[in-house]
Specification:
By secondary structure, the protein is an alpha/beta fold. Helices cover about 30% and strands about 15% of the residues. It has helices at about 20-30, 50-60, 75-85, 120-125, 145-155, 175-185; strands spanning about 5-10, 35-40, 65-70, 95, 130-135, 155-160. Helix 2 crosses helix 3.
Length: about 190
């Protein structure tokens, strides 16, 4: 049995029941890991203040056995949330999928999520295991932004050729590569 807790944060226009989120939850729970897939409010017209409040209300375990997984808009939301909470406390690990911290030209309505500065050094020091998945064929988040995020965070970049934006319609109802990386981080 694991004493680990995993929180999964979805992105723009998604729900906890989309894409690979429930599959990952089921795979982890089958191995004794406690998992919460957070329901971020009004994901079709998201508000960064409401998303920060949701993260604060739902991430109730915060220690070296805490692992966080985020997709797309959930990544920058999570990083913003974490930077005010990890200065003297460490979490176990962070996996970001199609993440970005710069404005997306095609989605200017999300610019308010990337207005603030993120202290990547503090985050890197507090989070020993950091992995970023991205695809050069992502039609929503340019791969260069995901590469930059990985570099800024000092994270291991895992490029996935042909993965698109890691959505169900891209073939991502499951995500075995992410599961493998996460299990290795939890059980090593």
């Amino acid at each position: 049995m694991s004493h680990s807790n995993v929180y999964i944060i979805h992105g723009f226009q998604a729900t906890p029941f989309d894409h690979w989120f429930q599959w990952l939850k089921n795979e982890l729970e089958a191995r004794g890991v406690s998992v919460k897939v957070l329901a971020m409010p009004d994901s079709s017209s998201p508000d960064p203040v409401a998303w920060q409040a949701t993260l604060a209300e739902n991430i109730d375990t915060f220690n070296e056995n805490t692992f966080l997984v985020a997709h797309s808009l959930g990544c920058v939301s999570l990083l913003t949330y974490l930077q005010g909470r990890v200065d003297d406390r460490s979490i176990g690990g962070l996996i970001l999928v199609s993440g970005f911290t710069s404005p997306l030209a095609e989605l200017p309505q999300l610019d308010t999520f990337v207005d603030g500065q993120i202290d990547f050094g503090t985050l890197a020091n507090a989070i020993p295991k950091r992995v970023v998945f991205g695809s050069p064929q992502d039609p929503i988040v340019p791969y260069g932004l995901t590469e930059k995020l990985a570099k800024d965070l000092g994270a291991d970049l895992q490029p996935m050729i042909g993965a698109g934006h890691f959505l169900a319609e891209d073939g991502y109802n499951t995500f075995p590569q992410l599961l493998e990386v996460l299990l290795q981080a939890i059980f090593e």
